Amino acid sequence: MEGERSGRRDPGRREDGAVKDRCPVVHVLGLGPGPLSLLTLETWEMLRAADEVLLRTERHPCVEELRERGIRLRPLDRCYERAGDLEEAYRGIVGEVVKRALERGTAWYAVPGHPLVAERTVTMLLRERVEVRLHNGVSFFDAVLALLRRDALEGVLLLDGESILETGAGVLDLRVGLMLAQVDTRLKASEVKAVLLDAYPPGHPVQVVKGAGGPGEEVETVPLEDLDRAERFDHLTTIWVPPLPEAEVFDFRRLVDLVARLRGPGGCPWDRKQTHESLARHMVEEAHEAVDAIGHRDWDHLCEELGDLLLQVVLHAQLGKEEGVFDIDEVLRLIIEKLVRRHPHVFGEAEARTPEEVISRWERIKAEERGEPSLLDGISEGLPALIHAYKLQSRAARVGFDWGAGEEVLPKLGEELREVEVALRRGGEGLEEELGDLLFTVVNVCRHFRVDPEIALRGSARKFAERFRAVEEECRRRGLSMEDMSLEELNALWEETK
In CATH, which superfamily holds the domain spanning 372-451? Predict the structure, then answer.
């Protein structure tokens, strides 16, 4: 490299100036986060030897010092100015670097900090048909940790402002510190704050780190809610969000850990005693309570009931882990794989334009997976009877085994009612079976008219309960005892409450 500057020929170049048939080389040099003193000796020597250094941006503290020492720099900031967005700018920069390498056989490209810490252009370069040689530098990550006196082994999640806006708060781990780079404007800080407030309390203290590694480095601590209330951001700004105490973290992982503790030594005697069998009824009860909350449109209550239902899932997963048969990770893996597999119209190339097409494909894929010999296989007999009957009828209807229209089922309803009357005249012989047939037909009527029988019956039961309570209240108001009243008197009150 020095040879070219002193008149010696570049061994990678022919006499006519064309590059020999070899893979072009790009030397990527990390400039560190601040002044020239933070450059590595290797990087300094390569900067001095290069005939020209392509510079991602001249907005770096050591650029003027490099020029003063005679380093020939060609900034690529114009790529930002003519691009519509950052990704386009990065593609333009990479294109310039590759073009230089193809023309000269070797190119030197300098970036702020470390080449592989928050440096998108280097990631893109590594996919190009050039040989990339990385020359390390001190990163802003190192400088920020040093300024904050944090050990990286305590846990750090490193993101940039753009990525957290794309992914949202779901990517965050509140138990470890969050370092946010490239939050360079007040507007960007405002957008980032909105995402962070989905996970952290408004008063959570955050540190705004400016110029880390340079002579004017400083740290300002502000409540998260005040993050964007001052002009404190530029290209050398990093945001540090400390972890939350475990007691303030409310996520799925903590629920799993709490259940494991309840089941563990020194845990809760009741929880430690439970088995899959003893918990089964609680699973059903919690599901019904959630359905009841939906029926009442009581969304606060539904939120609570869904938590109770989730607890049952985690309890069974913990039991499975203790027995060595499965754990919560296996539960999650299976349901995620199933959702992806049975939605090829979302995650694959298939198409489905209507809900009916989706259901049909779901059942077909399900049957193929299980190799089920019967269309009715896979419908759990543990379902509530109304739902079980509804599913059986719906499954059979998919192959045409069904009434043509809802009106055609109504005469069947009268037929089943007459058979109940016959059973009663026989002294009750076969009454249970005939009543079952009657209920099954009622479910069929519901299905044809697109009424969920479970919801319909719950609604009627709820209406009965409300009216009965109203009768009770009216009796108390009048000083009457329901036990001492005749059926006619009770019916009269019933009609009044209606």
Answer: MazG-like (1.10.287.1080)
Rounded Cα distance, 205 and 200, in Å = 10
- How many beta carbons lie within 10 A of that of residue 453, not counting itself? 20
What's the number of CA atoms in the CB half-sphere (13 Å) around residue 130?
A: 30
Structure-token match 């020999």, residue found: 20
**CA 489 to chain CA centroid, nearest Å:** 59
Distances (CA, A) of 377 to 325, 337, 361, 372, 454: 24, 21, 16, 6, 22
Query: The sheet that has 237-241: what strands, in order across it?
Result: 156-160, 177-181, 237-241, 205-210, 218-223
Distance CA 171, CA 207 (A): 20
Amino acid at 225: E
Strand ranges of the sheet holding 53-55, from the earlier edge strand across to the other edge: 73-75, 53-55, 106-111, 25-30, 131-135
Q: Which residue has the tokens 């009877």?
A: 385
CATH class in words for 2-138: alpha beta
Spans of all domains in the chain: 2-138, 142-246, 252-341, 372-451, 455-497
Q: β-strands 205-210, 218-223: how paired?
A: antiparallel
**Angstrom distance (rounded) from CA 290 to CA 297:** 10
Provide the pLDDT for residue 459.
85
Instruction: Say yes or no: do domains 2-138 and 252-341 share a fold.
Output: no
Is CATH 3.30.950.10 what the domain over 142-246 is classified as, yes or no? yes
Q: Can you say whether the dihedral through the CA atoms of 440, 444, 450, 451 is positive or negative? A: negative
* Burial class of residue 62, CB neighbours in 10 A (0-12, 13-18, 19+): buried
CATH architecture of 252-341: Orthogonal Bundle (1.10)
Q: Say how many CA atoms lie within 13 Å of 287 toward its Cβ.
A: 10
Q: Which residues, listed in sequence order, are joined to residue 26 by a DSSP beta bridge?
A: 107, 132
Q: Is the separation of the CB atoms in 302 and 294 below 8 Å?
A: yes
- H-assigned helices in 105-152: 120-125, 140-148
**pLDDT at residue 21 in the model:** 60
In the chain, which stretches have pLDDT less than 50? 1-19
